[in-house]
Amino acid sequence: MNTITLVVAVVLLCGVLLVRVNKQLGFPALISFVGIGAVYAAIYPAVFETITPTTAKDLSYLALAFILFEGGLHTSLRRVKHAFAPSISLATVGVVVSAAIMTALAYELLHVSLVAAALLGVAASSTDAASVFSVLGGTALRRRLVDVMELESGTNDPMAFFLTTILIQWQQLTGHSISQAIWYTLVLFLLQMGVGFFIGFLTGIFGSFINRSIDLDTGGMYPAFTLGLALLSFALAQSLYGSGFLAVYVTSVVLSNRRLEHRYSILRFHEGLAWTMHILMFVVLGLFLVPRDLAYLAGPGVLLAVGALFLARPAAVWVSTLWMGFTAKERAFMAWAGLRGAAPIVLILSAVEAQVTGYIVLIEVVFFVVIASTLVQGLTVNWVAEKLDLLEPTPSENILDLISITRENAVILPVEIGQTSRLVDKRMVEIKFPENTLCYGIVRGNQVVVPRGSTKLRSGDHLLILSDLRHIPSLKTLFQGEQVGPPAMLP
C-alpha cells in the first residue's frame, strides 16, 4: 500500500512540475507524462502485475468520463445552437471518413488483420476533448470555430467508442449474414446514443434541481456532489447498454446551462481533476510502450501519423462541412486543430483487452499518432490561427484566473442595516468608504439591487462590500452600531 501511494505521489508531483517547466520551454506537457510512464515501466517491470490491460482500460474509461464532464461544464447551449450541425457532422461523418482512410493506410503499412487496422483507424480519427479544450481554451479564436471544435471533441468520442464496440463484436460474431450485421449495428447505434442522451439529460435535470435545493454546510461539498453525478450518469448509461461518455457529457452541459450554486468551486475542482486524468492517461500510454518495438515500427508509425495529420483529418473536415458556410481558411484550421490525446489510447486499450488479432502493434503505433498530434499540432495551432487571420481581440487572462487573483486579494464584508440605524434613507454617495472599497450589491428581501450613488438605504438591507483585507478595521468603524458579519473570501 505504501509503495503504491508513493508511486502515485511521485507521478502526480512530477506531472505538475513538468507542466510548469514545459510551459516555459514551449513544449507540450502531455508528452512528458508519456516519458514518466515509460521510465517507470523500465525501472519497475512488476507494474504489469498490477496494471493489466483490463485495469488500464477501466481506469482510462473513468478518466475520459471525467475529462468529458469538465469539458461539458464549459459548453454554452446558446453557442451550441450555431455550432450544432457542423459539430455533429464532424463527429459522425467526419469520424467515418477519417477512419476509412486510416484503416486503408494501416492495412497496407502494418500488414495486420482488417479488423485490427479498422480499430486503429477509428482510434486515430477521434479528436480528444482533453487536448482540444486545453489548447483552444486560451486561444483568441473566432468564437464559432472554438464552439464547433469543442462540441465536436465532446461528441465524437461516443461515435468512436460505438464503432470500436461494433468492430470487436463483429470479430466475435460468426455465422451471421451481412443484412443481420447491418441491422445489429443500427439497433446498437440507436440504443447507445438514445440511452446515453436520455440518461445524461435526466441526470443533469435531477442534479440541477438538487444543487439549487440543498443548502450544504460548506461550499467544498458541491464539487463532491457533481463528482457523484458524473459517476452516476456514466454508470447508469453503461449498465443500460447506452453510451456512458455521451451521458456524462450531456449531464455536464445541462448542469452548466442552468443556475449552478458554487459554480466557481465546481469548475475549479473539475478542471484540476481533468488535468489529473490527463496525467493518468498519458502515463498509462507510457507504461505499455516497448522501446524495442518502437524502433521496429518507427517507419510505419511515422507514415501513419503523417497520414492522420495531412490526409485523413483534412479529408474528413472538407467532406463533413460542405455547404455549412465555412471559408477555406476556417476549414483549413479545423483540419489542423483536430488534436488527438487520451481518447485514442482508451480506444486501443479496448482492442488490447479484447485481444483482437494483431493488437500487439496497435498500442505502439497509436503512440506515433498521438505524439505527432500533440507535438506538431499542439505547438503550432495558435501560430496557424494567427497566420490564417482567425484570431479575435480578447482579454489576456482567463476569467477563472482573474477570479482567482481577486479571491487572493479581496474579501466580502456583509453588513445589515438595522431599523434604528443612522444610515437609513442615506444615499450611497454620502457614505465615505475607504479607498479600493465598493458596495457591489444590496440584498433587499428576495431582490438584489445594484447600488448607484443615488440609491437610498432601507432598514433590513444587507450590504455586500468588496474590499481589501487591510480596510476591514476602517469598515467596522464606519458601520459601528450595525450588524457586521465576518469577512469572507469570494465564492
UniProtKB/TrEMBL annotation:
What superkingdom does the record give?
Bacteria
| Keyword annotations | Antiport, Cell membrane, Ion transport, Membrane, Transmembrane, Transmembrane helix, Transport
Which N-terminal residues, if any, form the signal peptide?
none
Q: What NCBIfam families does the database record attribute to this sequence?
A: PRK05326.1-2 (NF003715), PRK05326.1-3 (NF003716)
PROSITE patterns on file: RCK_C
Q: Where does this one sit in the cell?
A: Cell membrane
By what name is this protein known? Potassium/proton antiporter
Organism (species): Alicyclobacillus fastidiosus
Q: Does the keyword Ion transport apply?
A: yes
InterPro entries, alphabetically?
Cation/H_exchanger_TM, Na+/solute_symporter_sf, RCK_C, RCK_C_sf
Transmembrane segment boundaries: 6-22, 29-47, 59-77, 84-107, 113-136, 181-210, 222-251, 272-290, 302-326, 333-352, 358-385
> How is this protein positioned relative to the membrane?
Multi-pass membrane protein
